User: Which sequence fits this backbone?
């Protein structure tokens, strides 16, 4: 019974839904804006709006309900590509995603699932 | 089925449809992006009733209190009157009842409004003079005296409104006041929370209002105020704040100047830098930042990196209106 439940629940549900997203987003954003490799992409003029956007990032990475398509991801990041966004920056974000989830004691198998979802949009984010 | 009134339009929201769906289906333009309550692009405000609690999840408490909600996750429970952004600006007549010098560049004015205005300590209003010139000023008193409001107006060289307040506006003159606005205000929830307040120049005005309100409401957490200016001349209410500190063991005051000599009891450095090095751990603190836009922006990020949650950081940058806006 419980096995069946865990196999049908989405990653988003298993990780803890919106509460998990809320816990993750600030930890993650602190890491991102402290990281000289990538913080130039995150304008510091409107922190609240940026944090809200990172909530969307996590909901997506956790496979939660979202309406983003590959094209949306391309559009959302296109101006960063013109600023030089490349694989090294993407890798840095992946690093922070993993570290954040570890800090929240998310089990390793769920972290890999989230990483795989984020990895799946690499080409869209990088405009390839 | 509930009715939605949006400006001039009245539309019907079908059961099971969100406010956003309904408005978009009626060809109304509403910014939106994720449509799942995360990105907050579709933030709207309800002007009559309290919006459903589920449509306010994740919003700052001050936004919730002001009846903001996310249209994409709002299933109306009754008829709603809604708007994008702040309400149309209404003005109330008022009379200047006193004028007092705080320091060589700052003046305190008190006005009495014809109708008491409902505001939260820390909010600001727009003051409008007879020819229509309008500027924002923060309310410097707590809510105890709601028919009277005080403001600290700093004179800027060549500044149209501030010069006029300093040189021409007199006791007995009329001025118009808008509805109170802004989200940088004190709510008496979580009274055990520690408060950090940082202000530069006349940024002390809203902070003083917040501190008085918090103390009157019996706030039990520690309250730390850092007030900064370039030079000693730019500070004011030093004695008053020391007095307040004497009477309230949980209130702590640090005046700061970044240039020139610092007398005993005054910290050397920018207020935000002094504050952040004194209070390196801000987890679970509530933070209020008012004054110079650059200070506000730096302090916001610094407070966040020191552990404060973005939901607990409230700020009003005193942006100076551009000459082209007049
Ligand atoms: C939310 C908020 C709250 C505020 N609260 C307070 C408060 O409590 N107390 C307070 O003192 N202020 C406050 N302010 C600032 C206030 O609203 C005014 O911006 C300020 O008083 C200056 O207005 P002014 O008309 O005197 O200056 P303006 O005439 O708008 O001029 C501003 C500056 O620009 C310069 N300037 C103007 N025109 C030109 C030009 N053509 N070329 C070059 N320079 C030019 C002027 O010399 C001056 O230094 C607040 C602002 C905001 C947004
Ligand atoms: C790992 C895969 C990634 C995913 C799933 C992802 C997802 C998202 C999403 C959903 C948004 C919100 C879009 C919107 O609604 O406007 C967003 C915005 C943003 N992303 Fe990403 N992103 C990824 C990688 C990156 C990388 C590598 C960078 C830069 C180093 C980056 C920088 C940003 C910035 C700065 C914004 C905010 C845009 C704004 O302010 O309008 N993202 N991202």
Assistant:
């Amino acid at each position: 019974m419980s096995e069946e439940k865990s196999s049908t629940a989405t990653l988003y549900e298993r990780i803890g839904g919106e509460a998990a997203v809320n816990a993750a987003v600030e930890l993650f954003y602190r890491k991102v804006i402290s990281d000289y490799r990538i913080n130039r992409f995150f304008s510091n003029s409107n922190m609240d709006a940026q944090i809200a956007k990172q909530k969307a990032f996590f909901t997506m990475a956790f496979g939660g309900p979202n309406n983003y398509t590959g094209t949306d991801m391309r559009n959302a990041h296109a101006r960063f590509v013109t600023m030089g966004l490349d694989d090294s920056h993407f890798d840095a974000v992946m690093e922070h995603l993993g570290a954040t989830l570890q800090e929240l004691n998310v089990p390793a198998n769920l972290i890999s699932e989230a990483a795989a979802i984020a990895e799946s949009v690499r080409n869209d984010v990088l405009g390839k | 089925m509930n009715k939605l009134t949006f400006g001039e339009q009245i539309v019907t929201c079908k059961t099971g449809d969100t406010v956003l769906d309904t408005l978009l289906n009626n060809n109304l333009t509403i910014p939106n992006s994720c449509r799942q309550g995360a990105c907050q692009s579709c933030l709207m405000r309800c002007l009559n009733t309290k919006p459903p609690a589920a449509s306010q999840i994740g919003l700052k408490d001050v936004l919730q209190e002001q009846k903001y909600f996310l249209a994409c996750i709002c299933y109306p429970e009754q008829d709603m009157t809604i708007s994008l952004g702040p309400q149309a600006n209404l003005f109330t007549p008022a009379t200047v009842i006193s004028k007092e010098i705080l320091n060589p560049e700052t003046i305190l004015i008190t006005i009495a409004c014809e109708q008491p205005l409902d505001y939260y300590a820390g909010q600001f209003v727009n003051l409008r003079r007879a020819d229509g010139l309008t500027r924002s000023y923060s309310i410097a008193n707590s809510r105890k005296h709601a028919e009277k409001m005080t403001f600290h107006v700093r004179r800027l060289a060549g500044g149209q409104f501030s010069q006029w307040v300093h040189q021409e506006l007199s006791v007995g003159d009329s001025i118009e006041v808008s509805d109170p606005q802004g989200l940088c205000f004190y709510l008496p929830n979580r009274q055990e929370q520690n408060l950090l307040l940082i202000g530069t120049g006349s940024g002390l005005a809203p902070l003083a209002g917040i501190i008085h309100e918090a103390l009157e409401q019996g706030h039990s957490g520690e309250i730390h105020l850092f007030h900064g200016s370039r030079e000693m001349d730019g500070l004011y209410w030093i004695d008053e704040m020391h007095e307040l500190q004497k009477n309230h063991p949980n209130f702590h005051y640090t005046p700061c100047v970044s240039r020139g000599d610092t007398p005993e009891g005054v910290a050397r450095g920018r207020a935000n830098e002094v504050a952040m090095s004194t209070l390196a751990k801000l987890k679970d603190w509530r933070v209020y930042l008012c004054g110079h836009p650059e200070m506000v922006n730096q302090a916001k990020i610094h407070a966040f990196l020191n552990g404060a949650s973005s939901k607990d950081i409230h700020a009003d940058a005193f942006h100076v209106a551009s000459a082209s806006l007049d």
The radius of gyration of chain B is 21 Å.
